[in-house]
Sequence to fold (108 residues):
Amino acid sequence: MKNNTNIEEALKQEFGCYYIADELLEGWEDSLSQMAWASASRLGDQVGENHIQDLIQLLKDARNDPNHPVIQMICDETLIDWIDEPRDWQILQNLLDMIVINLKQEAA
Fold:
């Protein structure tokens, strides 16, 4: 995958800045769609339009595999073990799905 390092760094920065366990307020899941839209916008800007499709594919692959290296990186950056609880895993999958949807709209 081209520019994979740039994509991974963008994901590290995004999740390490905006999804840290200690900074997520109670009920933050209610704002998931707005958060996903903002994340997609920032990520798209960071990786550039030439690499949005690579980012989308990486997020789709990670979304389906709790053992994917990107999922482990997200767990490390957010200080949340997303895969331990089924509800948390579903929230992360929903977030990644929404980010992908927004990235596709941005790339269209």
In short: The radius of gyration is 13 Å. The first helix runs from residue 4 to 18.
